[in-house]
Amino acid sequence: MTPPLEALGMIALRRLDPEAAHGLALKALQMGLGPKGGPFTSPRLATTLAGLSLPNPVGLAAGFDKNATALAPLARCGFGFVEVGAATPRPQPGNPRPRLFRLTEDRAAINRFGFNNDGMQAIAARLAHRPKGGTLGLNLGANKDSDDRAADFAKVLASCGPHLDFATVNVSSPNTESLRDLQGKAALAALLDGVMAANAALARPIPIFLKIAPDLTDAELADIAAVATSAGLSAIIATNTTLSRDGLKSPHAGEKGGLSGTPLFEKSTRILARLAGLTDLPLVGVGGISSAEDAYAKILAGASAVQLYTALVYGGISLADEITRGLDRLLARDGYANVAEAVGKGRAKWT
What we know:
This protein is an alpha/beta fold.
């Protein structure tokens, strides 16, 4: 249950423009107004993702802290791991405002930010002062006006990699024109070759993840699974936002951009379950998680860990702890000694 003070703050924030409210939420965390207890863990919840030891499998998705300005307060929240960014080589303002819309009736959001961020140098400087402990990743992006977008991902990794535990190649944002074309088999293979070379050149190479779109055909999904495996990636994050608008009730349903939140849950979970049948790589389930039951469903569908973001708009930052504790109870109820035992056990429901 949301703490009373947090609930009041959320009521106030929902009266503001969504992007302004998001900025204030980050400031509140920076001022020490967020949770203090750190991530909840138990022998059931403690798990490993791509060789990374996590206190629990519930992570924060990229996009909440784009510029790595709230690393210390986020480490005190309930997340088992945190992903910040996306970061691009050069700073860029992103798309014109308004570019973030609450779909309250659908418990969803549409964004068309377009990789607005401070650039890799500023972000690397903040990452260099990250809090000790915890598991921290960075979402890698490409500049909108880049002559070689594929090379941008490797540049950001070379700059920021020394301060990270993992990095995610994001070719699935719908808000940078033609970016999703990099998910094609040949283009993706070439891009990942450059990223993996940059990773090998780091003093301490790190696990590299790939974040994919939910709007993929079975053939495209099979290609991505094959390329990811042959490239030596460590995990796949399924999925980013969708371009679909099926069944929405909100007056903002027609806005351009990527849709996240509750309406994405089924679509992203089906992609996750299909992907689990195509690769042995660990999978991170993202899309529409707003409860312990949702997180558990992703794990049963094939995810080794999960991430959330949009649900925080409606449930507050304390939702991470609530989901984690609920997940522990669900695993115990069904007799699982740990998260790994449950991974994929309910996949047939989604395929």
